[in-house]
Amino acid sequence: MAVEHSFQVASASCDDDGHPKRTGTLWSCVAHIITAVIGAGVLSLAWSTAQLGWIAGPVSLLCFAIITYISAFLLSDCYRSPDSITGTRNYSYMDAVRVNLGRKHTWFCGFLQYFSLYGTGVAYVITTATSMRAIQRSNCYHREGHQAACTYGDTFYMLLFGLIQIVMSQIPDFHNMEWLSIVAALMSFTYSFIGFGLGVAKVIENGKIMGSISGVPATNIADKLWLTFQALGDIAFAYPYSIIVLEIQDTLRSPPAENRTMKKASMAAIFITTFFYLCCGCFGYAAFGNATPGNLLTGFGFYEPYWLIDLANACIVLHLVGGYQIYSQPVFAFAERWFTKKFPNSGFVNNFYTIKLPLLPGFKWNLLRLCFRTAYVISTTIIAMVFPYFNQVLGLLGALNFWPLTIYFPVEMYFVQKKIGAWTKKWIVLRTFSFACFLVTVLGLIGSLEGLISAKLS
């Protein structure tokens, strides 16, 4: 009887896979998604809208929102296999690809996924340093006038952010990050709303809506095409969170079924982010027209009230502290699982130690986690210092990530999961959808590469 009772207690505290009970809810899931989606990308949307113009800009934002939801919808059904309700759990994107598509696809997916996650970390270092510098410049302009030089470098701020992330990276995993995601999501709402409000105020001050149907004019057709393609890449970076859908879904409790909660959370989060994206992108363009800065809150189209600019940039910094971890934790988990399997008897890899500080709960750490995560943060910081180009880096990462990880793999896994035959109506529709998104990726990649090379050479 004692043995049976202890087994029941253990079962009550564990899920069907033997892991501790997952406690994530619809709202914690929405917070994770918003933290992942509303990040560095929102700040480039006014510039992207300016390149595309008043029709193509808003339409592109809406199209990417729909594409992102379709991708999340397809992926959420791949969390369990072979059945999406009662099947075996796939804890990560790569697990789902391996189960549904096989080993070759898994290697290709893994390379793209972790490259994209790593690149996002680099982009967040650049963006955070830009916002830190903007706070200093804003105060300088307020004291000395808008024509003052007020030039400051990025390197110090990148190093400072790297030091903060070395500490934050010791958070064990996603399951210990709910509080961080909630704080980061609140920060993203705050600075998005400030950007929106400043744009509205500027439009009222101007007394008219700036901009045109065709967007910012260029000296020749080739330059216009490069900037248009780069704008598509920037929008592609701003939306998709497909590479961490399953990691987020793995935090959800059940019942109800995890895929149902994930679909509801995706719908809510994408609706909220699209509203803010349209407000920031459209009102930013309406406020500045052809002079729209590449980064809405750090490009100094707005100078006053300087304290509000400072607050917005401080919120960006706080948000990206959490956002960096959201995108880094899957890399940390993969690397640590690999080392654990490769070196099962290594104390360096497997021995954990507890640190107890006054008034704080005990904190577990090990040498592998400390060394690998520290080296990872240092490497992203160094690369950001070498390529500190905001719009170009975002566009390049968005283009690389968009089709293969957001469209191709989810569509292919959905075919396998739902046993959809070739040349059926659903197969033709999804194949056409995938090909159209592939063309967008190619265009965005071409434009962003051209912009990055031009910026480096200039």
UniProtKB/TrEMBL annotation:
<feature type="transmembrane region" description="Helical">
    <location>
        <begin position="54"/>
        <end position="75"/>
    </location>
</feature>
<dbReference type="GO" id="GO:0005886">
    <property type="term" value="C:plasma membrane"/>
</dbReference>
<feature type="transmembrane region" description="Helical">
    <location>
        <begin position="148"/>
        <end position="167"/>
    </location>
</feature>
<dbReference type="InterPro" id="IPR013057">
    <property type="entry name" value="AA_transpt_TM"/>
</dbReference>
<keyword id="KW-0472">Membrane</keyword>
<feature type="domain" description="Amino acid transporter transmembrane">
    <location>
        <begin position="23"/>
        <end position="453"/>
    </location>
</feature>
<keyword id="KW-0769">Symport</keyword>
<feature type="transmembrane region" description="Helical">
    <location>
        <begin position="179"/>
        <end position="201"/>
    </location>
</feature>
<feature type="transmembrane region" description="Helical">
    <location>
        <begin position="105"/>
        <end position="127"/>
    </location>
</feature>
<dbReference type="GO" id="GO:0012505">
    <property type="term" value="C:endomembrane system"/>
</dbReference>
<feature type="transmembrane region" description="Helical">
    <location>
        <begin position="306"/>
        <end position="327"/>
    </location>
</feature>
<feature type="transmembrane region" description="Helical">
    <location>
        <begin position="268"/>
        <end position="286"/>
    </location>
</feature>
<keyword id="KW-0927">Auxin signaling pathway</keyword>
<dbReference type="Pfam" id="PF01490">
    <property type="entry name" value="Aa_trans"/>
</dbReference>
<feature type="transmembrane region" description="Helical">
    <location>
        <begin position="428"/>
        <end position="449"/>
    </location>
</feature>
<comment type="function">
    <text>Carrier protein involved in proton-driven auxin influx. Mediates the formation of auxin gradient from developing leaves (site of auxin biosynthesis) to tips by contributing to the loading of auxin in vascular tissues and facilitating acropetal (base to tip) auxin transport within inner tissues of the root apex, and basipetal (tip to base) auxin transport within outer tissues of the root apex. May be involved in lateral roots and nodules formation.</text>
</comment>
<feature type="transmembrane region" description="Helical">
    <location>
        <begin position="396"/>
        <end position="416"/>
    </location>
</feature>
<keyword id="KW-0812">Transmembrane</keyword>
<protein>
    <recommendedName>
        <fullName>Amino acid transporter transmembrane domain-containing protein</fullName>
    </recommendedName>
</protein>
<keyword id="KW-1133">Transmembrane helix</keyword>
<dbReference type="GO" id="GO:0006865">
    <property type="term" value="P:amino acid transport"/>
</dbReference>
<keyword id="KW-0029">Amino-acid transport</keyword>
<comment type="similarity">
    <text>Belongs to the amino acid/polyamine transporter 2 family. Amino acid/auxin permease (AAAP) (TC 2.A.18.1) subfamily.</text>
</comment>
<feature type="transmembrane region" description="Helical">
    <location>
        <begin position="370"/>
        <end position="390"/>
    </location>
</feature>
<comment type="similarity">
    <text>Belongs to the amino acid/polyamine transporter 2 family. Amino acid/auxin permease (AAAP) (TC 2.A.18.2) subfamily.</text>
</comment>
<dbReference type="GO" id="GO:0009734">
    <property type="term" value="P:auxin-activated signaling pathway"/>
</dbReference>
<dbReference type="GO" id="GO:0015293">
    <property type="term" value="F:symporter activity"/>
</dbReference>
<feature type="transmembrane region" description="Helical">
    <location>
        <begin position="25"/>
        <end position="47"/>
    </location>
</feature>
<keyword id="KW-1003">Cell membrane</keyword>
<keyword id="KW-0813">Transport</keyword>
